[in-house]
Amino acid sequence: MTTIEIPAGTWNVDPAHSRVGFVARHMMVTKVRGHFKEYTAEVTVAENPLESSVRATVQMDSVDTGNPDRDGHLRTNDFFDIETYPTMTFVSTGYTPGADGAFVMTGDLTLKGVTKPVSFDCQFEGVGADPWGGTRAGFSGTAVIDRTDFGVVYNAVLETGGVMLGDKVTIELDIQLVKA
User: Fold this and answer.
1) What 3-state DSSP class applies to 73?
2) Separation CA 10–CA 33 (nearest Å)
3) Could you give the CA distance from residue 119 to residue 141 in angstroms, rounded to a whole number?
4) Pair 41, 13: CB distance under 8 Å
5) Which residues pair with 139 in a beta bridge?
6) How far apart are CA 150 and CA 119, in angstroms?
7) Exposure of 152 by Cβ count < 10 A (0-12 exposed, 13-18 middle, 19+ buried)?
8) Residues ≥6 apart with Cβ < 8 Å to 173
9) Distance (Å, whole) CA 145 – CA 32
10) CATH class entry, domain 9-179
11) Which residues of the chain have pLDDT under 70?
């Protein structure tokens, strides 16, 4: 196993160089991608990086799929019900090391008031100095959830058979951290 070499301490997410996105099946023939424009995270890296902690909050009204009508529908009680549940949260509970900077980050994801354990397959992308005297680190990760487990059950049956939306949703993370 290659160890993750990152200085211990508090790190902030750089939203200009990060992305919290998702991919869902549409009409069982294509994938629709989207992302959230507003999110925060408290990242504390421990001396042993596998003992670190992450606490993230996503503002659900910041959803952007590139289609304003679809985004508006996602904000309704058919999907995210942002009037009742304005945020989605993730709190890490543990890490399992892998090879060459890979690791699994487990934690509790809360969406629409439902909390379920989720595992992200992650990759440490590296750490280095930036031109302004700071230190930056990068991570990427993916997790697959079943949206119906979180009460997101809207769907429609197609005339040709099948359904409008797949139940599986892939969450994609591309995160750049700045040492506080």
Assistant:
1) helix
2) 31
3) 10
4) yes
5) 124, 175
6) 15
7) buried
8) 18, 19, 20, 21, 120, 122, 139, 140, 141, 142
9) 15
10) mainly beta
11) 1-3
Which pLDDT score, from 0 to 100, does residue 68 have?
98
Give all strands (DSSP E) within 19-86, no chain letters: 19-26, 30-36, 39-45, 53-59, 63-64
CA distance 180 to 12: 6
> Whole-angstrom distance between the N-terminal and C-terminal Cα of the chain?
28
Predicted model pTM: 0.93
Q: What is the pLDDT of residue 1?
A: 38
Phi, psi of 65 (to 5 degrees): -110, 5
Instruction: Tell me the CB-side half-sphere exposure of residue 66, using CA atoms within 13 A.
Output: 6
DSSP strand E in 14-146: where?
A: 19-26, 30-36, 39-45, 53-59, 63-64, 87-97, 102-111, 114-129, 135-146
- Spell out the domain ranges in the chain: 9-179
Between the CA atoms of 54, 55, 60 and 63, what dihedral angle is there, to the nearest 10 degrees? -20
Contact 117, 144 (CB under 8 A): no
Please check whether residue 83 is in contact with residue 100, taking contact to mean a CB–CB distance below 8 angstroms. no
**Beta-carbon count within 10 A of 144 CB:** 13
pLDDT for 3 equals: 67
